[in-house]
């Protein structure tokens, strides 16, 4: 079997066209969706991620405000900036790029963001909403994975989903989203004894560990859907995921590539969350 490729670039283009249309509609009602992105320090990877987020906003007509601060920016100063943005009616989403320098308590900063502007979905109010099935912002990467499954009309009801990785940003929210769609979900992690025994049972596998070749062809049931969240470099310095793509694509029914899979979808869902935050602000303001 040669797997169907789930193209994150193509799906993103389609979704971003819809976001651009909704943005125009919102602007005619007097609201321009605005995202504030805060970068502290000089981590080169973070600088690239932030640049891509700002560019995506520009391409879809959203307003973006990028704040760059030096690595010695204090926690108190950062909390002050978040407070100001919470109170700024032109800003509908606030994203503080992680990781933050070690002298800043990232969790404290995340909790200082107004839940109504938490477009990353990292606030405990957002996590609690996801856990209880209430409306709230979903973390962008697992949200993008759900959109990819939707795009291939994959019905999760009664299916066995295995999530490899238990981070607060991907693994745990991913499991909750799959559960909400009535999958039977297993979360595997570094202390899992026999990973292969679990993945061989899976109809859907999400690999979100940050390590190359965590999933190889012998670990996949023929026809399973494989979503690769990993972002690693191989020995030649080329971008690769957590999945042995060449091998697994011979066994799986569908698979996401790296690059061009989950990565672009993460940014697309950030735009979607920001637009949603702006639409909710318009509704709260009683705009026609
Ligand atoms: N660092 C790596 N990925 C992310 C993300 O999705 N959001 C934020 N805020 N920081 C990140």
Summarize the structure.
By secondary structure, the chain is α/β, with parallel strands linked by helices. The chain has helices at residues 8-28, 44-60, 75-86, 106-112, 124-132, 140-151, 171-180, 195-199, 245-248, 262-284, and strands at 4-5, 34-40, 63-69, 93-96, 160-164, 184-188, 204-207, 225-228, 232-233, 239-240, 254-255.
Helix content range: 40-55%
Element order: H for helix, E for strand: EHEHEHEHHHEHEHEEEEHEH
pLDDT under 50 segments (min length 5)? none
Number of domains: 2
Largest sheet: 6 strands, parallel
Give your account of this protein's structure.
This protein has 288 residues and is of the alpha/beta class. The protein folds into two domains: 29-114, Leucine Dehydrogenase, chain A, domain 1 (Rossmann fold, 3-Layer(aba) Sandwich); 140-263, NAD(P)-binding Rossmann-like Domain (Rossmann fold, 3-Layer(aba) Sandwich). The protein has helices at residues 8-28, 44-60, 75-86, 106-112, 124-132, 140-151, 171-180, 195-199, 245-248, 262-284; strands at residues 4-5, 34-40, 63-69, 93-96, 160-164, 184-188, 204-207, 225-228, 232-233, 239-240, 254-255. Strand 9 and strand 10 (239-240) form a beta hairpin. The termini are far apart. The model has no long low-confidence stretch (mean pLDDT 97). Guanine binds next to strand 4.
Write the layout of secondary structure elements.
Blueprint: E1 4-5, H1 8-28, E2 34-40, H2 44-60, E3 63-69, H3 75-86, E4 93-96, H4 106-112, H5 124-132, H6 140-151, E5 160-164, H7 171-180, E6 184-188, H8 195-199, E7 204-207, E8 225-228, E9 232-233, E10 239-240, H9 245-248, E11 254-255, H10 262-284
Parallel strand pairs: 1-11, 2-3, 2-4, 5-6, 5-7, 7-8, 8-11
Antiparallel strand pairs: 9-10
Bound molecules: guanine.
């Amino acid at each position: 079997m040669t797997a169907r490729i789930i193209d994150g670039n193509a799906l993103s283009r389609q979704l971003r066209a819809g976001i651009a249309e909704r943005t125009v509609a919102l602007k005619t009602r007097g609201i321009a969706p605005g995202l504030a992105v805060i970068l502290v320090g000089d981590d080169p990877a973070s600088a690239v991620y932030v640049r891509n987020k700002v560019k995506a906003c520009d391409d879809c007509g959203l307003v973006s405000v990028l704040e760059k601060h030096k690595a010695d920016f204090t926690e108190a100063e950062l909390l002050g900036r978040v407070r100001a943005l919470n109170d700024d009616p032109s800003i509908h989403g606030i994203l503080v790029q992680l990781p933050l320098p070690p002298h800043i308590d990232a969790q404290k900063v995340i909790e200082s963001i107004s839940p109504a502007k938490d477009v990353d979905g990292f606030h405990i109010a957002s996590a609690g909403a996801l856990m209880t099935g209430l409306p709230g912002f979903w973390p962008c990467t697992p949200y993008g994975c759900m959109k990819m499954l939707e795009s291939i009309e994959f019905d999760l009801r009664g299916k066995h989903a295995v999530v490899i990785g238990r981070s607060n940003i991907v693994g745990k929210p991913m499991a909750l989203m799959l559960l909400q769609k009535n999958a039977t979900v297993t979360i595997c992690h570094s202390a899992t004894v026999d990973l292969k025994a679990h993945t061989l049972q899976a109809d859907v596998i999400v690999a979100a560990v940050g390590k190359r070749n965590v999933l190889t062809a012998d670990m996949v049931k023929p026809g399973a859907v494989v979503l690769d969240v990993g972002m690693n470099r191989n020995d030649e310095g080329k971008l690769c995921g957590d999945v042995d793509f060449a091998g697994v694509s011979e066994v799986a029914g569908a698979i996401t590539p790296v690059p061009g899979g989950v990565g672009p979808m993460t940014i697309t869902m950030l735009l979607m969350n920001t637009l949603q935050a702006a639409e909710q602000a318009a509704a709260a303001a009683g705009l026609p």
